[in-house]
Amino acid sequence: MEKLLAKVDRRIKKLGDELQQLYTEHPDATIGEITFQNLLSGMRGMKSLICNTSFVDPYRGLFISGLEVPDFEHKTPEEIFFLLVTGTLPSKSELEELSSELKKRSKVPEYVWKMLRSLPKTIHPMTMFSLGILAMEGESVFKKKYEEGLHKDEYWKYTLEDSLNLIAKLPSLAAGIYRILFMNGDIIDSDQQLDLAGNLTQRLGFNRHNQGFEELNRLYLVLHCDHEGGNVSAFTSRVVNSALSNIYYAASAGLNGLAGPLHGLANQECLHFITNIHDTLGNKPSVDEIRKYVMKTLDDGKVIPGYGHAVLRVTDPRFTAFMKFGDKHCPESPYLQTVKKLYEVVPDILKTYKGGKVSNPWPNVDAISGSLLYHYGMTHYEYYTVMFGISRVLGFCAQNTIARGLHQPIIRPKSVTNSWLKEHLESQ
Ligand code: CMX
Protein backbone atom coordinates (compact mmCIF):
# COMPACT_ATOMS: atom_id res chain seq x y z
CA MET A 1 0.00 0.00 0.00
CA GLU A 2 2.83 2.34 -0.86
CA LYS A 3 0.66 4.66 -2.90
CA LEU A 4 -1.83 5.20 -0.08
CA LEU A 5 0.92 5.64 2.51
CA ALA A 6 2.72 8.21 0.37
CA LYS A 7 -0.45 10.23 -0.17
CA VAL A 8 -1.50 10.19 3.48
CA ASP A 9 2.05 11.15 4.47
CA ARG A 10 1.93 14.13 2.10
CA ARG A 11 -1.47 15.21 3.39
CA ILE A 12 -0.42 15.03 7.02
CA LYS A 13 2.72 17.09 6.29
CA LYS A 14 0.67 19.69 4.41
CA LEU A 15 -1.97 19.95 7.14
CA GLY A 16 0.71 20.09 9.82
CA ASP A 17 2.65 22.83 8.00
CA GLU A 18 -0.51 24.87 7.50
CA LEU A 19 -1.41 24.65 11.18
CA GLN A 20 2.16 25.51 12.22
CA GLN A 21 2.21 28.54 9.95
CA LEU A 22 -1.20 29.73 11.11
CA TYR A 23 -0.11 29.33 14.71
CA THR A 24 3.15 31.21 14.11
CA GLU A 25 1.23 34.07 12.51
CA HIS A 26 -1.63 34.14 15.04
CA PRO A 27 -0.29 32.73 18.31
CA ASP A 28 -2.82 34.54 20.49
CA ALA A 29 -5.85 34.31 18.20
CA THR A 30 -9.28 33.67 19.66
CA ILE A 31 -11.45 31.22 17.71
CA GLY A 32 -14.66 31.92 19.60
CA GLU A 33 -15.94 32.47 23.07
CA ILE A 34 -17.50 29.94 25.39
CA THR A 35 -20.82 31.09 26.75
CA PHE A 36 -22.82 29.75 29.67
CA GLN A 37 -25.38 28.69 27.05
CA ASN A 38 -22.70 26.49 25.36
CA LEU A 39 -22.13 24.70 28.64
CA LEU A 40 -25.83 24.05 29.08
CA SER A 41 -26.45 22.90 25.51
CA GLY A 42 -24.02 20.06 24.98
CA MET A 43 -21.26 22.38 23.67
CA ARG A 44 -23.45 23.01 20.59
CA GLY A 45 -21.69 25.29 18.11
CA MET A 46 -18.47 25.54 20.16
CA LYS A 47 -15.51 25.37 17.77
CA SER A 48 -13.12 23.17 19.67
CA LEU A 49 -11.85 20.45 17.31
CA ILE A 50 -9.88 20.33 14.08
CA CYS A 51 -11.16 17.81 11.52
CA ASN A 52 -10.13 17.90 7.87
CA THR A 53 -11.72 14.67 6.65
CA SER A 54 -15.10 16.35 6.18
CA PHE A 55 -17.11 19.44 7.00
CA VAL A 56 -20.84 20.04 7.48
CA ASP A 57 -22.19 23.31 6.12
CA PRO A 58 -25.52 24.10 7.87
CA TYR A 59 -27.13 25.03 4.54
CA ARG A 60 -25.40 22.66 2.11
CA GLY A 61 -24.65 19.60 4.19
CA LEU A 62 -21.69 17.27 4.05
CA PHE A 63 -18.52 18.24 2.19
CA ILE A 64 -15.55 15.92 1.75
CA SER A 65 -12.52 17.88 0.58
CA GLY A 66 -14.59 20.35 -1.42
CA LEU A 67 -16.99 17.75 -2.85
CA GLU A 68 -20.61 17.86 -1.71
CA VAL A 69 -23.12 15.02 -1.69
CA PRO A 70 -24.24 15.13 -5.36
CA ASP A 71 -20.55 15.16 -6.40
CA PHE A 72 -19.65 11.96 -4.56
CA GLU A 73 -22.89 10.01 -4.10
CA HIS A 74 -22.06 7.72 -7.04
CA LYS A 75 -18.60 6.78 -5.79
CA THR A 76 -17.72 3.53 -4.06
CA PRO A 77 -16.93 3.19 -0.33
CA GLU A 78 -13.32 2.39 -1.26
CA GLU A 79 -13.03 5.66 -3.20
CA ILE A 80 -14.66 7.53 -0.34
CA PHE A 81 -12.24 6.13 2.24
CA PHE A 82 -9.35 7.16 0.02
CA LEU A 83 -10.89 10.63 -0.30
CA LEU A 84 -11.45 10.98 3.45
CA VAL A 85 -7.94 10.02 4.41
CA THR A 86 -5.91 11.57 1.56
CA GLY A 87 -8.10 14.52 0.56
CA THR A 88 -8.25 13.43 -3.13
CA LEU A 89 -10.11 10.78 -5.08
CA PRO A 90 -7.89 7.84 -6.07
CA SER A 91 -6.44 7.32 -9.51
CA LYS A 92 -7.18 3.95 -11.15
CA SER A 93 -3.95 2.41 -9.86
CA GLU A 94 -4.40 3.88 -6.37
CA LEU A 95 -7.89 2.41 -6.21
CA GLU A 96 -6.65 -0.97 -7.40
CA GLU A 97 -3.99 -0.99 -4.72
CA LEU A 98 -6.47 -0.12 -1.95
CA SER A 99 -9.09 -2.60 -3.17
CA SER A 100 -6.60 -5.43 -3.36
CA GLU A 101 -5.29 -4.63 0.15
CA LEU A 102 -8.84 -4.77 1.51
CA LYS A 103 -9.61 -8.06 -0.22
CA LYS A 104 -6.47 -9.64 1.30
CA ARG A 105 -7.44 -8.60 4.82
CA SER A 106 -11.14 -9.50 4.85
CA LYS A 107 -11.18 -12.74 6.88
CA VAL A 108 -12.82 -12.45 10.29
CA PRO A 109 -11.03 -14.65 12.88
CA GLU A 110 -12.92 -17.79 13.97
CA TYR A 111 -12.91 -16.79 17.65
CA VAL A 112 -15.10 -13.80 16.77
CA TRP A 113 -17.81 -16.04 15.28
CA LYS A 114 -17.57 -18.34 18.29
CA MET A 115 -18.05 -15.42 20.66
CA LEU A 116 -20.93 -13.92 18.64
CA ARG A 117 -22.74 -17.25 18.38
CA SER A 118 -22.59 -17.67 22.15
CA LEU A 119 -24.58 -14.48 22.79
CA PRO A 120 -28.33 -14.53 23.49
CA LYS A 121 -30.48 -14.01 20.37
CA THR A 122 -32.24 -11.14 22.14
CA ILE A 123 -29.09 -9.01 21.89
CA HIS A 124 -29.19 -5.88 19.73
CA PRO A 125 -27.20 -6.18 16.46
CA MET A 126 -25.28 -2.99 17.32
CA THR A 127 -24.08 -4.59 20.56
CA MET A 128 -22.83 -7.57 18.55
CA PHE A 129 -21.16 -5.30 16.01
CA SER A 130 -19.38 -3.32 18.69
CA LEU A 131 -18.38 -6.50 20.56
CA GLY A 132 -17.15 -8.16 17.36
CA ILE A 133 -14.82 -5.25 16.67
CA LEU A 134 -13.69 -5.05 20.28
CA ALA A 135 -12.95 -8.78 20.31
CA MET A 136 -10.43 -8.25 17.48
CA GLU A 137 -8.49 -5.67 19.51
CA GLY A 138 -5.69 -8.17 20.08
CA GLU A 139 -5.04 -8.05 16.30
CA SER A 140 -3.93 -4.42 16.55
CA VAL A 141 -0.57 -3.88 14.87
CA PHE A 142 -0.39 -0.41 16.43
CA LYS A 143 -0.62 -1.96 19.87
CA LYS A 144 2.20 -4.46 19.18
CA LYS A 145 4.44 -1.82 17.67
CA TYR A 146 3.70 0.57 20.54
CA GLU A 147 4.70 -2.08 23.06
CA GLU A 148 7.94 -2.56 21.13
CA GLY A 149 8.65 1.19 21.37
CA LEU A 150 7.13 2.84 18.33
CA HIS A 151 8.38 6.36 17.39
CA LYS A 152 5.66 9.03 17.58
CA ASP A 153 6.12 9.90 13.89
CA GLU A 154 5.04 6.38 12.98
CA TYR A 155 1.79 6.30 14.98
CA TRP A 156 -0.36 7.21 11.99
CA LYS A 157 1.09 4.44 9.78
CA TYR A 158 0.02 1.70 12.16
CA THR A 159 -3.31 3.42 12.82
CA LEU A 160 -3.84 3.25 9.07
CA GLU A 161 -2.64 -0.35 8.99
CA ASP A 162 -5.16 -1.27 11.69
CA SER A 163 -7.82 0.75 9.87
CA LEU A 164 -7.39 -1.22 6.65
CA ASN A 165 -7.47 -4.50 8.56
CA LEU A 166 -10.66 -3.44 10.30
CA ILE A 167 -12.49 -1.89 7.31
CA ALA A 168 -11.77 -5.00 5.22
CA LYS A 169 -13.56 -7.19 7.75
CA LEU A 170 -16.65 -5.05 8.30
CA PRO A 171 -18.89 -6.42 5.50
CA SER A 172 -18.18 -9.96 6.61
CA LEU A 173 -18.62 -9.18 10.31
CA ALA A 174 -21.80 -7.17 9.80
CA ALA A 175 -23.34 -9.69 7.40
CA GLY A 176 -22.43 -12.56 9.74
CA ILE A 177 -24.31 -10.82 12.57
CA TYR A 178 -27.36 -10.53 10.31
CA ARG A 179 -27.13 -14.24 9.45
CA ILE A 180 -26.71 -15.30 13.08
CA LEU A 181 -29.57 -13.18 14.40
CA PHE A 182 -32.11 -13.27 11.60
CA MET A 183 -31.27 -16.14 9.25
CA ASN A 184 -30.17 -19.73 9.82
CA GLY A 185 -26.77 -18.73 11.20
CA ASP A 186 -24.72 -19.90 8.21
CA ILE A 187 -21.90 -17.54 7.41
CA ILE A 188 -21.80 -16.98 3.64
CA ASP A 189 -18.42 -16.72 1.95
CA SER A 190 -17.90 -14.13 -0.68
CA ASP A 191 -16.38 -13.96 -4.11
CA GLN A 192 -12.87 -12.59 -3.50
CA GLN A 193 -13.26 -10.27 -6.48
CA LEU A 194 -16.17 -8.30 -5.01
CA ASP A 195 -15.82 -4.79 -3.62
CA LEU A 196 -17.01 -3.82 -0.12
CA ALA A 197 -20.64 -3.25 -1.16
CA GLY A 198 -20.82 -6.36 -3.35
CA ASN A 199 -19.24 -8.39 -0.61
CA LEU A 200 -21.75 -7.09 1.94
CA THR A 201 -24.72 -7.84 -0.33
CA GLN A 202 -23.55 -11.37 -1.09
CA ARG A 203 -22.69 -12.20 2.50
CA LEU A 204 -26.03 -10.91 3.78
CA GLY A 205 -27.56 -13.56 1.54
CA PHE A 206 -29.41 -11.19 -0.80
CA ASN A 207 -29.52 -11.58 -4.54
CA ARG A 208 -26.85 -9.20 -5.82
CA HIS A 209 -28.77 -8.66 -9.04
CA ASN A 210 -32.06 -7.82 -7.34
CA GLN A 211 -32.99 -4.52 -9.02
CA GLY A 212 -30.63 -2.24 -7.25
CA PHE A 213 -30.11 -3.68 -3.75
CA GLU A 214 -26.34 -3.77 -4.23
CA GLU A 215 -26.49 -0.24 -5.60
CA LEU A 216 -28.45 0.79 -2.50
CA ASN A 217 -25.86 -0.81 -0.23
CA ARG A 218 -23.11 1.03 -2.07
CA LEU A 219 -24.96 4.33 -1.64
CA TYR A 220 -25.62 3.49 2.01
CA LEU A 221 -21.92 2.86 2.67
CA VAL A 222 -21.00 6.12 0.95
CA LEU A 223 -23.56 8.53 2.41
CA HIS A 224 -22.99 7.67 6.09
CA CYS A 225 -19.18 7.70 5.96
CA ASP A 226 -18.35 10.83 7.96
CA HIS A 227 -20.03 13.98 9.30
CA GLU A 228 -17.12 16.09 10.58
CA GLY A 229 -15.63 15.70 14.06
CA GLY A 230 -18.16 16.75 16.68
CA ASN A 231 -21.01 14.25 16.27
CA VAL A 232 -21.38 11.78 19.13
CA SER A 233 -19.85 8.76 17.38
CA ALA A 234 -16.90 10.45 15.66
CA PHE A 235 -16.09 12.54 18.71
CA THR A 236 -16.22 9.50 21.01
CA SER A 237 -13.94 7.58 18.71
CA ARG A 238 -11.52 10.55 18.58
CA VAL A 239 -11.47 10.91 22.36
CA VAL A 240 -10.77 7.20 22.86
CA ASN A 241 -8.06 7.11 20.18
CA SER A 242 -6.47 10.27 21.61
CA ALA A 243 -5.44 8.16 24.63
CA LEU A 244 -3.61 5.98 22.04
CA SER A 245 -6.21 3.26 22.52
CA ASN A 246 -6.04 1.54 19.15
CA ILE A 247 -8.57 1.79 16.34
CA TYR A 248 -10.49 -1.32 17.45
CA TYR A 249 -11.18 0.26 20.85
CA ALA A 250 -11.95 3.60 19.20
CA ALA A 251 -14.30 2.18 16.56
CA SER A 252 -16.16 0.03 19.07
CA ALA A 253 -16.60 3.04 21.37
CA GLY A 254 -17.76 5.29 18.53
CA LEU A 255 -20.34 2.71 17.50
CA ASN A 256 -21.70 2.59 21.04
CA GLY A 257 -22.52 6.28 20.61
CA LEU A 258 -24.00 5.67 17.18
CA ALA A 259 -26.34 3.14 18.82
CA GLY A 260 -28.29 5.90 20.61
CA PRO A 261 -31.78 6.86 19.34
CA LEU A 262 -30.87 10.53 18.99
CA HIS A 263 -27.98 9.57 16.69
CA GLY A 264 -27.64 6.52 14.40
CA LEU A 265 -30.42 4.47 15.95
CA ALA A 266 -32.82 7.09 14.57
CA ASN A 267 -32.97 5.06 11.32
CA GLN A 268 -34.37 2.09 13.25
CA GLU A 269 -36.72 4.43 15.14
CA CYS A 270 -37.98 5.85 11.84
CA LEU A 271 -38.91 2.47 10.45
CA HIS A 272 -40.56 1.59 13.73
CA PHE A 273 -42.48 4.87 13.52
CA ILE A 274 -43.63 4.20 9.95
CA THR A 275 -44.57 0.61 10.77
CA ASN A 276 -46.67 1.89 13.66
CA ILE A 277 -48.35 4.41 11.35
CA HIS A 278 -49.18 1.59 8.91
CA ASP A 279 -50.39 -0.69 11.71
CA THR A 280 -52.68 2.06 12.99
CA LEU A 281 -53.81 3.72 9.76
CA GLY A 282 -53.18 1.13 7.06
CA ASN A 283 -50.57 1.09 4.31
CA LYS A 284 -51.87 4.18 2.55
CA PRO A 285 -52.54 6.79 5.25
CA SER A 286 -53.71 10.21 4.10
CA VAL A 287 -51.64 13.33 4.71
CA ASP A 288 -54.24 14.53 7.22
CA GLU A 289 -54.12 11.26 9.14
CA ILE A 290 -50.34 11.48 9.25
CA ARG A 291 -50.49 15.07 10.47
CA LYS A 292 -52.71 14.00 13.38
CA TYR A 293 -50.42 11.04 14.15
CA VAL A 294 -47.37 13.32 14.27
CA MET A 295 -49.16 15.81 16.55
CA LYS A 296 -50.13 13.00 18.91
CA THR A 297 -46.54 11.70 18.98
CA LEU A 298 -45.33 15.15 20.01
CA ASP A 299 -48.13 15.50 22.58
CA ASP A 300 -46.96 12.20 24.08
CA GLY A 301 -43.56 13.86 24.68
CA LYS A 302 -41.66 11.93 21.97
CA VAL A 303 -39.40 13.21 19.22
CA ILE A 304 -40.17 12.69 15.53
CA PRO A 305 -37.33 10.42 14.47
CA GLY A 306 -35.35 11.48 11.40
CA TYR A 307 -36.15 15.17 11.84
CA GLY A 308 -33.86 17.85 13.25
CA HIS A 309 -30.09 18.15 13.39
CA ALA A 310 -27.48 19.75 15.58
CA VAL A 311 -25.71 21.44 12.63
CA LEU A 312 -27.90 21.23 9.49
CA ARG A 313 -30.54 23.87 8.86
CA VAL A 314 -31.98 22.51 5.60
CA THR A 315 -33.17 19.14 4.26
CA ASP A 316 -30.16 16.86 4.56
CA PRO A 317 -28.66 16.35 1.05
CA ARG A 318 -28.15 12.70 2.05
CA PHE A 319 -31.95 12.46 2.46
CA THR A 320 -32.31 13.94 -1.03
CA ALA A 321 -29.81 11.45 -2.48
CA PHE A 322 -31.77 8.53 -1.00
CA MET A 323 -35.04 10.05 -2.26
CA LYS A 324 -33.61 10.15 -5.80
CA PHE A 325 -32.71 6.48 -5.44
CA GLY A 326 -36.21 5.64 -4.18
CA ASP A 327 -37.92 7.59 -6.96
CA LYS A 328 -35.86 5.64 -9.49
CA HIS A 329 -36.09 2.14 -8.02
CA CYS A 330 -39.21 1.85 -5.86
CA PRO A 331 -41.57 4.83 -6.27
CA GLU A 332 -44.59 2.66 -5.41
CA SER A 333 -43.21 1.43 -2.08
CA PRO A 334 -45.78 2.21 0.66
CA TYR A 335 -42.85 2.94 3.00
CA LEU A 336 -41.37 5.51 0.64
CA GLN A 337 -44.84 6.99 0.12
CA THR A 338 -45.25 7.47 3.86
CA VAL A 339 -41.75 9.02 4.07
CA LYS A 340 -42.91 11.54 1.47
CA LYS A 341 -46.14 12.31 3.31
CA LEU A 342 -44.20 12.84 6.53
CA TYR A 343 -41.91 15.23 4.61
CA GLU A 344 -45.04 17.14 3.56
CA VAL A 345 -46.29 17.66 7.11
CA VAL A 346 -43.49 17.37 9.71
CA PRO A 347 -41.42 20.49 8.87
CA ASP A 348 -44.43 22.81 9.17
CA ILE A 349 -45.43 21.22 12.47
CA LEU A 350 -41.92 21.41 13.93
CA LYS A 351 -41.51 25.04 12.84
CA THR A 352 -44.13 26.12 15.38
CA TYR A 353 -43.76 23.28 17.92
CA LYS A 354 -42.70 24.47 21.40
CA GLY A 355 -42.88 28.09 20.24
CA GLY A 356 -40.32 27.57 17.48
CA LYS A 357 -37.77 25.93 19.73
CA VAL A 358 -36.74 23.22 17.22
CA SER A 359 -33.60 24.54 15.52
CA ASN A 360 -34.04 22.49 12.36
CA PRO A 361 -37.47 21.21 11.27
CA TRP A 362 -36.09 19.41 8.21
CA PRO A 363 -35.39 15.68 7.69
CA ASN A 364 -31.95 14.15 8.19
CA VAL A 365 -30.58 11.03 6.51
CA ASP A 366 -32.32 8.67 8.94
CA ALA A 367 -35.81 9.79 7.86
CA ILE A 368 -35.57 7.77 4.65
CA SER A 369 -32.67 5.31 4.63
CA GLY A 370 -34.48 2.44 6.38
CA SER A 371 -37.56 2.61 4.15
CA LEU A 372 -35.38 1.67 1.16
CA LEU A 373 -33.77 -1.29 2.95
CA TYR A 374 -37.25 -2.41 3.96
CA HIS A 375 -38.41 -2.32 0.37
CA TYR A 376 -35.67 -4.80 -0.58
CA GLY A 377 -36.73 -7.25 2.11
CA MET A 378 -34.41 -6.26 4.92
CA THR A 379 -37.29 -6.00 7.34
CA HIS A 380 -35.41 -6.45 10.63
CA TYR A 381 -35.02 -2.77 11.28
CA GLU A 382 -32.97 -3.31 14.46
CA TYR A 383 -30.20 -4.02 11.97
CA TYR A 384 -30.22 -0.68 10.14
CA THR A 385 -27.81 1.11 12.46
CA VAL A 386 -25.23 -1.61 11.75
CA MET A 387 -25.43 -0.62 8.06
CA PHE A 388 -24.87 3.02 9.13
CA GLY A 389 -22.00 1.85 11.36
CA ILE A 390 -20.05 -0.01 8.65
CA SER A 391 -19.89 3.24 6.76
CA ARG A 392 -19.20 5.50 9.72
CA VAL A 393 -16.13 3.46 10.70
CA LEU A 394 -14.52 4.75 7.48
CA GLY A 395 -14.73 8.23 8.95
CA PHE A 396 -13.47 7.14 12.40
CA CYS A 397 -10.45 5.51 10.76
CA ALA A 398 -9.64 8.48 8.53
CA GLN A 399 -10.09 11.02 11.34
CA ASN A 400 -7.91 9.10 13.78
CA THR A 401 -5.18 8.38 11.22
CA ILE A 402 -4.87 12.10 10.49
CA ALA A 403 -5.08 13.02 14.18
CA ARG A 404 -2.20 10.65 15.00
CA GLY A 405 -0.22 12.04 12.07
CA LEU A 406 -0.67 15.57 13.40
CA HIS A 407 0.40 14.42 16.88
CA GLN A 408 -2.83 15.73 18.32
CA PRO A 409 -2.72 15.38 22.11
CA ILE A 410 -4.98 13.49 24.43
CA ILE A 411 -8.40 15.21 24.51
CA ARG A 412 -9.17 16.50 27.95
CA PRO A 413 -11.56 19.48 28.36
CA LYS A 414 -11.96 20.99 31.81
CA SER A 415 -15.21 20.57 33.67
CA VAL A 416 -16.44 22.95 36.35
CA THR A 417 -18.77 22.65 39.32
CA ASN A 418 -21.88 24.70 40.12
CA SER A 419 -19.92 26.46 42.90
CA TRP A 420 -17.12 27.34 40.48
CA LEU A 421 -19.70 28.73 38.04
CA LYS A 422 -21.43 30.72 40.77
CA GLU A 423 -18.17 32.27 41.92
CA HIS A 424 -17.00 32.92 38.36
CA LEU A 425 -20.26 34.47 37.19
CA GLU A 426 -20.74 36.61 40.30
CA SER A 427 -17.23 37.99 40.06
CA GLN A 428 -17.87 39.36 36.54
N1 CMX B 1 -39.00 16.04 17.28
C1 CMX B 1 -39.42 16.65 18.42
N2 CMX B 1 -38.69 17.55 19.09
C2 CMX B 1 -37.50 17.88 18.56
C3 CMX B 1 -37.01 17.32 17.36
C4 CMX B 1 -37.81 16.35 16.73
N3 CMX B 1 -37.41 15.72 15.63
N4 CMX B 1 -35.80 17.85 17.10
C5 CMX B 1 -35.53 18.72 18.10
N5 CMX B 1 -36.56 18.72 18.99
C6 CMX B 1 -36.64 19.45 20.25
C7 CMX B 1 -35.51 18.96 21.16
O1 CMX B 1 -35.86 17.75 21.81
C8 CMX B 1 -35.36 20.14 22.10
O2 CMX B 1 -36.39 20.10 23.06
P1 CMX B 1 -36.10 20.40 24.62
O3 CMX B 1 -35.45 21.75 24.65
O4 CMX B 1 -37.43 20.33 25.25
O5 CMX B 1 -35.14 19.32 25.07
C9 CMX B 1 -35.64 21.33 21.19
O6 CMX B 1 -36.37 20.81 20.04
C10 CMX B 1 -34.37 22.02 20.69
O7 CMX B 1 -33.49 21.06 20.15
P2 CMX B 1 -32.64 21.40 18.84
O8 CMX B 1 -31.72 22.53 19.16
O9 CMX B 1 -33.54 21.60 17.68
O10 CMX B 1 -31.87 20.04 18.54
P3 CMX B 1 -30.53 19.46 19.19
O11 CMX B 1 -29.38 20.03 18.44
O12 CMX B 1 -30.53 19.57 20.67
O13 CMX B 1 -30.71 17.92 18.83
C11 CMX B 1 -31.29 16.10 17.44
C12 CMX B 1 -30.56 17.44 17.52
C13 CMX B 1 -30.95 15.44 16.12
C14 CMX B 1 -30.82 15.21 18.59
C15 CMX B 1 -32.83 16.35 17.55
O14 CMX B 1 -33.25 17.14 16.46
C16 CMX B 1 -33.64 15.06 17.61
O15 CMX B 1 -33.83 14.52 18.70
N6 CMX B 1 -34.13 14.56 16.42
C17 CMX B 1 -34.80 13.27 16.36
C18 CMX B 1 -33.80 12.13 16.40
C19 CMX B 1 -32.98 12.05 15.13
O16 CMX B 1 -33.48 12.11 14.02
N7 CMX B 1 -31.66 11.88 15.28
C20 CMX B 1 -30.75 11.64 14.14
C21 CMX B 1 -29.84 12.82 13.82
C22 CMX B 1 -28.89 12.47 12.70
C23 CMX B 1 -27.92 11.43 13.12
O17 CMX B 1 -27.09 11.70 14.01
O18 CMX B 1 -27.94 10.30 12.59
TrEMBL record:
<keyword id="KW-0808">Transferase</keyword>
<dbReference type="InterPro" id="IPR016142">
    <property type="entry name" value="Citrate_synth-like_lrg_a-sub"/>
</dbReference>
<dbReference type="InterPro" id="IPR036969">
    <property type="entry name" value="Citrate_synthase_sf"/>
</dbReference>
<protein>
    <recommendedName>
        <fullName>citrate synthase (unknown stereospecificity)</fullName>
        <ecNumber>2.3.3.16</ecNumber>
    </recommendedName>
</protein>
<comment type="pathway">
    <text>Carbohydrate metabolism; tricarboxylic acid cycle; isocitrate from oxaloacetate: step 1/2.</text>
</comment>
<comment type="similarity">
    <text>Belongs to the citrate synthase family.</text>
</comment>
<dbReference type="GO" id="GO:0006099">
    <property type="term" value="P:tricarboxylic acid cycle"/>
</dbReference>
<dbReference type="GO" id="GO:0036440">
    <property type="term" value="F:citrate synthase activity"/>
</dbReference>
<dbReference type="GO" id="GO:0005975">
    <property type="term" value="P:carbohydrate metabolic process"/>
</dbReference>
<dbReference type="InterPro" id="IPR002020">
    <property type="entry name" value="Citrate_synthase"/>
</dbReference>
<dbReference type="InterPro" id="IPR019810">
    <property type="entry name" value="Citrate_synthase_AS"/>
</dbReference>
<dbReference type="Pfam" id="PF00285">
    <property type="entry name" value="Citrate_synt"/>
</dbReference>
<dbReference type="InterPro" id="IPR016143">
    <property type="entry name" value="Citrate_synth-like_sm_a-sub"/>
</dbReference>
